[in-house]
Amino acid sequence: MTQLFLNASQVVTCAGPARARRGVEQGDAVVRERVGVAVDAAGRILAVAPDAELRAAQPTARIIDCAGGVLTPGFVDSHTHAIFGRARYEEQEMRAAGIGYLEIAKRGGGIHSSVRDLRSRTADELIALATDRLRRIAAHGTTTVEIKSGYGLSLESELATLRVIRQLAADLPLRLVPTFLGAHEIPLDHQERAAQREDYLRLVTEEMIPAVATAGLARFCDVFCEPGVYTVDETRRILRAARAAGLQLKLHADELENGTAAELAAELGATSADHLAAISELGIQALAAARTVATLLPGTMLFLGRPKQAPARALIEAGIPVALASDFNPGTSPTVNFPLVLTLGVSQLRLSVAEALIAGTVNGAAALGLAHEIGQVAPGFQADLALFDVRDHRELPYWYGDRRCQRTWVGGRPVHVG
Ligand code: NIG
Ligand code: FE
Q: Residues with Cβ within 6 A of ligand 1?
């Protein structure tokens, strides 16, 4: 039946063109007062209009009382690594003691330790762990979650991870978008000799990608393109194979050190280039000439204790659409709290609140190729909504670390009920 969401103090609509917002467009989240939202039986938004008008037009509709809270589009978290086994809290102290992220990886920690752990788990264990984590994510206002594989690093374990994501998508009311990240690292037993490295690249391009694409297990292919991990040439080779197999492209680009990965993202026309804390001026120019979304992950730099965040202002001023995401993963960003990412967007990346909100909704959707379906509270869009116990949208990034989200809906169906 039709539902009316009434009595909100503000509705953050993000209404506008169904595509990534760049430049000044990113600075208007179209916040409305004294309006409600009508949702049809199929879970799509019918209208955004004054409460009384909606009541008169739909006298028999079910009423959802927003109790003076702020209603927003559900957040679109377009970059996570949510399928993993154990937490890696021991590495936090190692970093505090001065051992860097890549040094921990060289010692067999980091991604490698999550790979060992994931390979020892059953699908049911991974599903149970991820279900709990995704519920926590939804409880903070997120309704769409991109999830990468990448802790399997073998044909069998990568496929098993993607099947876990497919099962979760069937079981949970959230929207999940699967990404194949078989090139998250070079497995430890392929690192010693160049020929072994080549063997793994062949495995990724000639076996994993075709298997993933044939089974329809992923929409995107991603590569950790970083000095010390995958080179630009290797990344180009992998992503070309992915595109030929019908996958869309993402890159972990210039995360820790500059390696001209942003330029590669632009060259390949990737849907998004993610991280970019070490992007160069030339990288910014290259992205500005492309249609690629810059997905920034400020929680990662915060958690790693690194001094330099991505140059978000320069990216926006160059006309590049900026998305924000959590990077939820056991090594560099174990947060389920999307509003905290908005906080970091404002206080660390110097976005306005409106820019951060567009980054977490419309531009997150664009980073997943879904800007025509989700990310806006506007007629025709999916009724993916989040209700917060605040009176003004500027409080969303303000009460940092708190959980103000009361309820979330996907396609008009309740996901999280506070
Ligand atoms: O986005 N950079 C590579 N991947 C993740 C970290 C993964 C891990 O440490 O387990 C990231 O930061
Ligand atoms: Fe990541």
A: 81, 110-111, 114, 224, 252, 255, 300, 327, 329-332
Atom of ligand 1 nearest to the CA of 275: 1
The vertex-257 CA angle with 254 and 261, nearest 5°, equals 30
Claim to verify: residue 222 and residue 149 sit in the same structural domain: yes
On whether both 199 and 216 belong to a single domain, the answer is yes
Global confidence as pTM: 0.98
Centroid of ligand 2 to alpha carbon of 80 (angstroms)? 6
Residue among 352, 282, 281 at smallest CA distance from 322? 352
Please name the helix (run of DSSP H) or strand (run of DSSP E) that holds residue 91, with its range, or none: helix 90-96
Distance of alpha carbon 81 from its chain centroid, rounded? 9
Evaluate whether 221 touches 179 at the Cβ level (below 8 Å). Answer: yes
Residue with tokens 């210039």, as numbered in its chain: 254
Beta bridge partners of 222: 250
Tokens representing 331? Answer: 């090594």
φ and ψ at residue 314, rounded to 5 degrees: -65, -35
The pLDDT tens digits of the residues spanning 146-203 come to 999 999 999 999 999 999 999 999 999 999 999 999 999 999 999 999 999 999 999 9
Per-residue pLDDT reduced to its tens digit, 221-232: 999 999 999 999
* Residue whose CA lies nearest to ligand 1 atom number 3: 224
Q: Would you say 20 and 375 are in contact if contact means Cβ atoms under 8 Å apart?
A: no
For residue 30, give its domain range: 3-73+375-417
Residues 240 and 362 in one domain: yes
Ligand 1, pocket-test mutation among 99, 179, 185, 332, most atoms within 8 A of CB: 332
CATH number at residue 299: 3.20.20.140
| Distance of alpha carbon 199 from alpha carbon 213, whole angstroms | 20
For residue 109, which ligand has an atom nearest its CA? 1
Exposed/middle/buried for residue 325 (C-beta within 10 Å: 0-12, 13-18, 19+) = buried
CA of 295 to the centre of ligand 2 (A): 10
